Amino acid sequence: MFRWILSNKLAGAHRPRAVRQRLGEVPKLAVDSWIKEARDGLGIRSIICLLDEEELLRYQTLPADLLSYYRAKGLNVAHIPAANHKRPRLSKANLRKVWNAYKKLPKPVLIHCSAGISRTGAAIRYIKLRAERKR
Q1: What is the mean pLDDT of each run of 10 residues along the chain (135 residues)?
Q2: In sequence order, what are the residues at sequence separation of 6 or more whose Cβ sits closer than 8 angstroms to the Cβ of residue 74?
Q3: Cis peptide upstream of residue 88 (ω within 30 degrees of 0)
Q4: How far apart are CA 127 and CA 103, in angstroms?
Q5: How many Å separate Cα 89 from the centre of its chain?
Q6: What is the C-alpha radius of gyration for the chain, rounded to an integer number of angstroms?
Q7: Contact 74, 38 (CB under 8 A)
Q8: What is the Cα–Cα distance from 92 to 52, expressed in whole angstroms?
Q9: Most distant CA atoms of the chain, gap in Å
Q10: What is the domain extent for residue 90?
Q11: What is the pLDDT of residue 21?
Q12: Sign of the torsion angle spanned by Cα atoms 99, 103, 104, 108
């Protein structure tokens, strides 16, 4: 589910969802469990969410939209909407937004898209590349 990329600085994951759930509305209990593991288990302080507006509709069972719900649970949030199944995974503009958000957000930061693979992977590769250049 969650994986550290840069220890205590950057992690990646899939979106909050019930076990083995791919489609449909996500139960509040699943979101709460995901947040608890990220925040309390890993110490995550910030989230970069790459879900697009259509994907965010899966969270209508929450008392607020997903991003506001994260904030209400004490997390810092940057939202960079990016459509799934596109090439490139993230536009150059979105990659710059990811880097700027990562620099500003309190660490550790967790990045997620839907599956935690394509868009998340592109964002993580870009952050690692930029971070290595700064050394």
Answers
A1: 92 87 84 97 97 94 96 98 88 96 98 90 95 76
A2: 39
A3: yes
A4: 9
A5: 15
A6: 14
A7: no
A8: 17
A9: 44
A10: 3-133
A11: 64
A12: positive
Residues ≥6 apart with Cβ < 8 Å to 60: 25
| Beta carbons of 49 and 80 less than 8 angstroms apart | yes
Q: Which two tokens stand for residue 27?
A: 């139960």
Domain count, the chain: 1
Round to whole Å and give the CA distance between 61 and 55: 13
Count of beta carbons in the 10 Å neighbourhood of residue 130: 15
* DSSP state for residue 90 in the 8-state scheme: S
Alpha carbons within 13 A on the beta-carbon side of 6 = 17
Q: In what order do the strands lie in the sheet with 76-79?
A: 3-6, 10-13, 109-112, 46-49, 76-79
- In DSSP terms, 110 is beta-bridged to 11, 47
Residue 48 confidence (pLDDT): 98
CATH number at residue 77: 3.90.190.10
User: What whole-number distance in Å separates Cα of residue 32 and Cα of residue 114?
Assistant: 17
DSSP string, 94-115: HHHHHHHHHHHSPSSEEEE-SS
Q: What is the pTM of this model?
A: 0.93
